[in-house]
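=== Structure Prediction Worksheet ===
Name of assembly: unnamed complex
Input type: mixed (protein and possibly other molecules)
Chain count: four
Listed entries:
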Amino acid sequence: MYHDLHFAFNLPVHRGSHTVDDADLREKGVTRIYDILFDYEDVLMETDRRLREILIRPEFQKEMGTREFYYHLGKILNECEKKNNLGQVSVLAVAYRNGIPVFTSSPGDSTIGMNVAGLELLAQATGLQDLFKLKINPSIDVNDSTAIILNAKRYENGKTAVILIGGGSPKNFMLQTEPQIQEVLMIPEVGQDYDINITDARPDTGGLSGAPPSEAASWGKIDPTKLEETVTAYLDVTVAFPLLTAYTIQTTKSKKLKRLYDRGQELHEKLVESYLENNKEVEKLKGLIKKL
Amino acid sequence: MYHDLHFAFNLPVHRGSHTVDDADLREKGVTRIYDILFDYEDVLMETDRRLREILIRPEFQKEMGTREFYYHLGKILNECEKKNNLGQVSVLAVAYRNGIPVFTSSPGDSTIGMNVAGLELLAQATGLQDLFKLKINPSIDVNDSTAIILNAKRYENGKTAVILIGGGSPKNFMLQTEPQIQEVLMIPEVGQDYDINITDARPDTGGLSGAPPSEAASWGKIDPTKLEETVTAYLDVTVAFPLLTAYTIQTTKSKKLKRLYDRGQELHEKLVESYLENNKEVEKLKGLIKKL
Amino acid sequence: MYHDLHFAFNLPVHRGSHTVDDADLREKGVTRIYDILFDYEDVLMETDRRLREILIRPEFQKEMGTREFYYHLGKILNECEKKNNLGQVSVLAVAYRNGIPVFTSSPGDSTIGMNVAGLELLAQATGLQDLFKLKINPSIDVNDSTAIILNAKRYENGKTAVILIGGGSPKNFMLQTEPQIQEVLMIPEVGQDYDINITDARPDTGGLSGAPPSEAASWGKIDPTKLEETVTAYLDVTVAFPLLTAYTIQTTKSKKLKRLYDRGQELHEKLVESYLENNKEVEKLKGLIKKL
Amino acid sequence: MYHDLHFAFNLPVHRGSHTVDDADLREKGVTRIYDILFDYEDVLMETDRRLREILIRPEFQKEMGTREFYYHLGKILNECEKKNNLGQVSVLAVAYRNGIPVFTSSPGDSTIGMNVAGLELLAQATGLQDLFKLKINPSIDVNDSTAIILNAKRYENGKTAVILIGGGSPKNFMLQTEPQIQEVLMIPEVGQDYDINITDARPDTGGLSGAPPSEAASWGKIDPTKLEETVTAYLDVTVAFPLLTAYTIQTTKSKKLKRLYDRGQELHEKLVESYLENNKEVEKLKGLIKKL
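=== Predicted Assembly ===
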């Protein structure tokens, strides 16, 4: 998401080669992501400077999840795109325009998280913590992402699917929505209906990144009766995802946008409703909390 | 870290096989992590129940980073270990006893994060949010992890090393400490001195997980003059890490523990000091914040 | 090449799943290649029976390389295709029709090699070795494959390319043509002009399968001044090759077939000519051989 | 096997780095195998010169399999080792001394095969083909390797194991011994008893290199009732094999050598005996051959 900013800010990133001398690059002030090269001062540091000014805007001065954070950021990037006549270059801008919620499971990891932390450090060190009030609360994201799945399955009698590109923390974050429903909030549910994985991680190392849909089914993440509807493609995503997208565009009609971001409050209320009506532990936990 | 709890709680986890019928496992209430099997009700749900009671204890009722969160949890698991005469079975307990800080870059992703989120939902839904006050703030972790590196390099004139097991978000979280110093806090620094990677991710997919130490050097994460001190072993960590550990134990003398957890406040103050004395932008940012 | 026979013989092979119980398959007489399933008795054993009858035909009763062997086999499979109105189902038949030479670097490894060996055993054990005279001589293939490259580069002033799908013995067999020219036959040459690799083998294990084009350049296999014309795609070939083929068909005009098989004798003579005019060791080696 | 010669000839090979400029290496006459470097003229060409003189010795002037070829070569390398007081540096020399048969499934692929082919070209071009008579016949190897398995299982009532390091053609060559017994020679047998794989090839690409022991069981290569005795370790062999070897040496007593090379004729005769007594097709095939 951080690197999305370069495009919306119209700062140049270049396609080069991964076989370069990185010590030389560093000396010359060039930063590398595989075969993408950009200037340290004019792109990286400049993006940071602009980002910090954005983070000090009023709409960011509160506790929020990344879902809301990226909405505010996407709105600004959408304005940048328009102002600079860039066309569609920013992922967050397109998500903003279409009401698509965006989540990050590791909000502190990335240059965005680093600048949020830097500003918090500054505000605290200079006695301005009552003015700079941005805090990312991951619990909000856990519940907001869960509310999307619960609503689709329980309130709209629909089906849900996960498309997992790569592994790591984002993979589990998407898959844990069902255990959050079943195991933590104790709302009866049976797992998602479809699961498409594009990854180069294999099961044999035992980690989550390579864990197949069937392992997820043993947790209730995926409906165990629908394992035949799951697919794992061991492919470079830069090949697999364009193929998948082109195929989808060519073979299916456009659908009405769900604009799930806009329905955040409604979905949250349904989650609370389902939780309170089902959870046998609610009273016990309330009792414990009240003793605090 | 969540699965560490099973061991400290003395709940049974079994070594089995990864070639099982997961739909059958789900029906029988067995949960699988590759070739590890455990009971859904008696282990997973029971761990969750105990965890929630722990999270309602007074020491957790505040905003904190995962560094502090795991310290409190490790202290409790240490008591569990002792009470049950289990020997050393918990990673968090051993970290607690030795004053070793533990961080997670994705605090909402995991059953611990799910239960924190569940309790927050409960407290808010039942008007108890003034009693249950646990919030994980990732910015605290970003700055606390950075403070460790800064102290070693700038205040103790020492060398630093990263040992990266696997990739994903934790890899960048460890490596971003140097950019947090140089790029965000603008404190002059040159990168870490040693970098050992154990991974099965290759560079060619272009992602962070497989990015080699040299790419990190182009960011200032690793000192570009010390790339010869970096190693990437493309090996299953269950083989590589025991070999590395056994070799280290056999060839080096015990060192005095640094107990960096205990020095958290001191390291934080040094970070603030270095930041304020160097950052040209501090005044400008203060000005912007004051206008809020 | 063996499995090409099933198609030309119109014996059924089925697409199934790789997640099956192989002990059960064996009991039921089903043989598996990943997700391809076929009957042991009616397909595998039947293919072998027909193959053995083919191998006893007169045109196979001589010493030959696999280039000639596959030509004779392709001619028969071409007849099978036509007789059964199968359309184009056999790779060897299409190679036969177009005069494309086909080589195998490991002629004894495969069910074809096994049946050749079985017939040789039978003939020798029953005193019929003067009638069944088929012998595969790998040296003929080494020189015939080399002659193709030498002719293109030295006699036709052209450029050559290798398209390497996968690794192992076939990869080196194609690449060793240049060292055979330069290092063994001592004919001045500089390496092939283009090198496209589609593989999942990475360089780090140190083997030939994952060795990049640059390593090949250090041997003179690839022209070291043309490394920018080389590509390695770390991709499943079932995805990469159709994409490459479709792109080629859509963007280039049909070319006249080279029918290199038909020119085998001519290319062989040019190889001998170039060898004898250049090799300083020829006289010395002749002297050594004459002393035998 | 070719690179084994450098060691027996006491020609220097150096450990370097895989991150070098290969065009520069080529210009300077240095050849690279991953991180191994050696001189093109003084090591590669010199090894070839000595090899060609060896191949002209009288013991090589016949048709043979690689089993016999490597025996003769190992005998000479054993003498080189002794003469130069090198200790144990050559794999072929140690195999020679211990009567261990060595096979190659792709005899034309390698610098040994290239030099055999070069000498054949020379002899034919200069009318010396009646003096230089070395021909590698892969069928001999197919039957000789099969005879080892058949003898162990059928005549000595023993168990057999395959240890497969890497994949490709050598993997199938070892595994096809059972199909050669059952499917081609039609001798009743049930598959090998143990199967250890060390590889980085995964099953999902569908190739033989990554095919698991269970797939082999569907072919009768491995006894389908003994799949629990099979292991696949997805590990770099440079780590896995030393661990396996050290463990074996430390935990098992030395066993008497089988010296299977020395028993070649006996094993061959047993294979013929078993073949003729079982094969229902022998008479039919004899009839077909006699019509030639």
